[in-house]
Amino acid sequence: MSRKGPFPLSFQKVPHAWEIRPTMALKFSVLLLLGLCGKISSGSQPAFDNTPGALNYELPTTEYETQDTFNAGIVGPLYQMVHIFLNVVQPNDFPVDLIRKLIQKKFDISVDSKEAAFYEIGVLVCAILGLLFIILMPLVGFFFCMCRCCNKCGGEMHQRQKQNEPCRRKCLGISLLVICLLMSLGIMYGFVANQQTRTRTRRTQKLAESNFRDLQTLLTETPKQIDYILEQYTNTKNKAFSDLDGIDSVLGGRIRDQLKSKVTPVLEEIRAMASAIKQTKNALQSMSSSLKSFQDASTQLSTNLTSVRNSIENSLNSSDCASDPASKICDSLRPGLSNLGSNHESSQLPSVDKELNTINDVDRTDLESLVKRGYTSIDEIPDRIQNQTVDVIKDVKKTLDSISSDVKNMSQSIPIEEVLFQVSHYLNNSNRYFHQEMPKLEEYDSYWWLGGLIVCFLLTLIVTFFFLGLLCGVYGYDKHATPTRRGCVSNTGGIFLMAGVGFSFLFCWILMILVVLTFVVGANVEKLLCEPYENKKLLQVLDTPYLLKEQWQFYLSGMLLNNPDINMTFEQVYRDCKRGRGVYAAFQLENVFNISENFNIEKLSENIVEELDNLNVKIDNIELLDNTGRKSLEDFANSGIDAISYSTYLAEAEKSPTKVDLLTFASNLEAKAKQLPEGKLKQALLMDAQNIRTIHQHHIPPVQQSLNTLKQSVWTLQETSNNLPEKVKKILASLDSAQSFLTNNISSIVIGETKKFGRTIIGYFEHYLQWVLYAVTEKMTSCKPMTTAMDSAVNGILCGYVADPLNLFWFGIGKATVLLLPAVIIAIKLAKYYRRMDSEDVYDDVETVPMKNLENGSNGYHKDHLYGVHNPVMTSPSRY
Known about the structure:
By secondary structure, the protein is mainly alpha-helical. The chain has helices at 22-37, 76-89, 96-103, 109-119, 121-149, 165-245, 247-316, 326-333, 353-363, 367-379, 381-388, 390-413, 416-476, 488-534, 537-542, 555-561, 570-578, 583-586, 595-598, 601-604, 606-613, 627-637, 646-654, 662-673, 680-721, 724-779, 784-818, 820-834, 849-856; strands spanning 158-159, 839-840. A two-stranded parallel ribbon has the order 1-2. The longest helix has 81 residues, at 165-245.
């Protein structure tokens, strides 16, 4: 195969089904990243923050099929029980130093054998006990058989009867039943473990295929991740184009907003003052009109009231008032005639025409339009910037487009397709070889399963004999029957028990050989491989400097990076890959190709910076208010409206139109006139009363309305003119300050915002490039499938599918086999109580038992054959 990058990719046929070179995936990942890192780069970063604008990049996550944890399911508690037993048998810590010596081939039997024996003391003790069992059980069985053939060891078909026989029989039966139940539980463990063995090939195949698919997914997703990373440049460029096209709102809007914050308050004050000028003009016009109306109405009212008063005086001075009772009534009317007149002197209220003319001259300036012109000069800033930057924007876009072309060329120049093809070809070959070897593995597993099944069934047969013996013995036993006359069922029970004993002696030592072998292998696999792999002590051993290769301090970095001095450990790589970090960070590829040294973000953005430096925006000649507007404000302040005596007008406006209430006066006049006798005087006074009412109806409302309008106008003018010169002076001072701010600071504001705009555009690309570097170093080409595959091989297949069922198998079978020893002893003793005997102990004279006891010394019983007497009645013809 051809060499690409710093590492050779070698593919060779896998010699065994499980032997897949672990460095291939690592070297592939190294090469894959180096191809990309040759174009984009960065120092490693622990985290990445999405901040500029709406450019939030997130590398698409890849969903892998294989779980990184393995659940044993319902058999998990059984495995855990075996682990607890192994921890009791083998409580010692993982022998780190001993393993190191073994790996370095520095193990000295004479020196280190004691340490190894101390570590393996629990396993050795159990194995020695098993060997003793293997050796002694066949010997014991042989001698036991020979002994029984000589009518010894219970072989004599004669039962000595004792008084505690029922209790002994029951105790022996219950003990054998309990032991058989415990043996059945162990056999069940064996069946369960054997069934796990039956299904482990299928589960192994499923797990391996899942890992192969995950590795293929890694290969297929890597180009997609690269394409996604490169595609994000287009989004970044479009965002920059959007800001460049909207420079009027982005840059111009910022400048305008900064200026508006300073000038808007003063322009609003001037606009308020322009409104005050118009309001003052309207109030003065209303006041002038009200004064004229008031004067006319007041004069007319005064004339009419004078006429009525003269008429009443003439009537009171007539001869009709000389005689009583008219004289008294006339005398009572004369004092009140002086109040019948107007209460106002219109000549006391001066005219405001002078002030009105002044305000009219001020209003002709149209101050409000001048304020609008100041606003317009600020609001036109975005358009002015847009017009001034057209050519620069075109140049910046051309530069960004050229970078976009470089990015596209970069993606095409990455030698990823060939590398992916080679690694994919290797994975396919490995997968194909795996499936080719699977039938052999299934065949081997079927042999193992069949052997385990035979072992379990053999133990089941022995336990079945014991159970049948107990069943037949218990249900067939007749307590009234003598030993020589026991029933067929009871006798069959005894035969079943002895058959179980015979099979036990024949096969228990073979079973123990299997138990010892599987125990030694399974226990050491669990304690020396599975457990240290789980707690990572095994990786810590492999990380020992100069362990795997004497010349290399760190083996992993020497193997992958050709530099054994780089501190790269198995534990660190495993931890990083487990967390989903990218290959670049996990395998410290910066020591092979340091991205930050070979790629400079500022260098890429240099062309953009040069073009943005040409972004020269000029904004000047902004005048908030010209001299005409200033003069208008000054004239308004000097218009004299603040010198008007508003109190005089208000005092006059508060007066009633007449000195007396005309309606009351008319009613009083009419009442007194009606007291007069009929005549010309009475009629004249009644007519005058009616005339007074008419005057009130027609002349009082116009006067009152004029007074009210005058009052409102005076209030408006009084409020407007309050501290008017000071207000105008303050506004002019604010105007001067704002204008000075524009004159002195607008240039710095424009320059600052322009630079800020340029930094924003450059920031988009710097942000993008930083994200690319972060994605490449931390996220892209996650090596998690590699650790998952390793976990699947060790935790899943070796420990979960092989070691755990194997340990459960020897645990269950060993438990049942060990319990055969007490079961055999109890079964031999119990068979005597169930089998039909050839002879039995009998009493000669029941009433003289004590005497017979003394004569024969046999607890009150004697044997017929001891005296040479043959008793055909008490002897059974059958022999079993």
